[in-house]
Amino acid sequence: MLALLIAAATALWLGILTSISPCPLATNILTISYIDRKIGKPRTVFLTGLLYTLGRMLAYTVLAILIVSSILAQEKAAFFLQRYMYKLLGPVLIIVGMILLELINFNIAPSVNAQKMEKIVESCGIWGGGLLGIIFALTFCPSSAALFFLSLIPLSIKNNSAVLLPAIFGAGTALPVLFFAVLIAVGAKWISTAFNKLTQIELWGRRITGVLFILIGIYFCLVYIFRIL
Fold first, then answer.
1. What does the pLDDT read at residue 211?
2. 30-49 per-position pLDDT tens digit
């Protein structure tokens, strides 16, 4: 039970860190702008933000179910992962940590036709929030791709959780949008200040997480690969 709680907390933090990374944060700001146009209807603002949250959760959960279930369904793959998971996690965590610290850079920036998407979303009404959640969840950037494919997926496989952990991760990625949707709904005046604080939190959160991932990865390599400790 304790292991599952730790895994759930890790998935939530990975989701939050993903949501406030520069590229995902930009898509979340677009969502805030979309919600902001409905500022005269507090109930609609909140519902749109909630649907966006559910859209992200749905996208990540379905994608993770497909990946994790496919891997676990293959007996050879499942046996291989059960036997070598900790040996694989060491190098993987080091790579993820280096990506978070921007020691490794690669460009997979998504190409999104904002005007075309805006028209489609507008035609869907408040359900456009859910559509945005699904679309933006699947437009991976380097940091979000590393956190999802190289951190969340191994975590889900290790804990045999194809639904719970990805859903928690998805909720974490949408929490800032839901938070700002509530602020808009109640007419908060300090939204820009909150965004600035959020970027500062992201910078230090990403650096600390990156360093921890590298240290844990080195430890796993020393223990499970080189058998030094």
1. 92
2. 676 666 665 556 677 777 77
d(CA 8, CA 55): 19
What pTM does this model have? 0.76
What stretch of H or E contains 194? helix 191-220
The confidence band for 78, taking pLDDT boundaries of 50, 70 and 90, is: low
* Whole-number CA gyration radius for the chain: 19
Contact present, 16 and 206 (Cβ < 8 Å)? no
* Both tokens assigned to 140: 């991976």
93/89 Cα distance (integer angstroms): 6
Contact between residue 128 and residue 34 where contact means Cβ atoms under 8 Å apart: yes
- Look up residue 64 and give its two tokens: 């993770």
List the one residue out of 51, 56, 46 whose CA is nearest residue 16. 56
**Any idea where the domains of the chain sit in the sequence?**
2-225
3-state secondary structure 39-104: CCCHHHHHHHHHHHHHHHHHHHHHHHHHHHHHHHHCHHHHHHHHHHHHHHHHHHHHHHHHHHCCCC
**pLDDT for 189 beyond 70:** no
Buried b or exposed e, range 177-209, using 16+ CB within 10 angstroms: bbebbebbbeeeeeeeeebeebeeebeebbeeb
